[in-house]
Amino acid sequence: MNCSLLSLPPQHHRPTTQTFPQDLYAVLREMTHSLCQLKEDMELLQRETKEQVTQLKAEVDKLKQQLQVRQVAFSAALTAGGDVVTLGPFPEDTTLVYKHVPTNIGNAYNSNTGVFTAPVRGVYNFEWSIGAYGGGNHGTAAWLVKNSENVFMAWERQEGGFMSASKGVALLLEVGDVVCVRLVANGSNVAYDDGSNHTTFSGHLLFPM
Questions:
Q1: Distance CA 201, CA 198 (A)
Q2: Where are the extended beta strands (E) located within 10-121?
Q3: Percent of the chain with pLDDT strictly greater than 90
Q4: pTM for the full model?
């Protein structure tokens, strides 16, 4: 039996070319646009976040400053280091300058002038005492003064020996109001102090308003 190879008719192969549909270009353009938009959005978000952080930091610093302002307290005595001094009498009411200042939180009291300046609107409590040795016609008296207003007087008078007087008051102060203690002028009032600190001036903020 003759075997013959079966031959198939030759196939015609068409050359193939790979083409990108127009939709693919559109998708790529859209993706590129989306990426650019995303980048812009991220940059904007970073700027806004930075601005918010800066603003938040400023607010925190402001709150810290407000908190520090609301911490106000001082105590002062006429002399320091055990010095003995007698002031007065004076021909006119004279502000006492308390040089020994163990406490001055908020730095509202000025030891160079003897004046307290309110750093915040609020109610403040003040106390002052004044000492002297009586002898003949000597006494002691001191006004607590708010701005130019005499508020309360601490007063004592006796013929001999050591004497003292003290008082306290609560005052509503505006920012910038000043408070001091003035030795009363009447030709006989004196203020005495030594290492025991008999003549003092103290104050603190009770609450802001």
A1: 10
A2: 73-77, 85-87, 94-95, 100-105, 109-110, 115-117
A3: 54
A4: 0.68
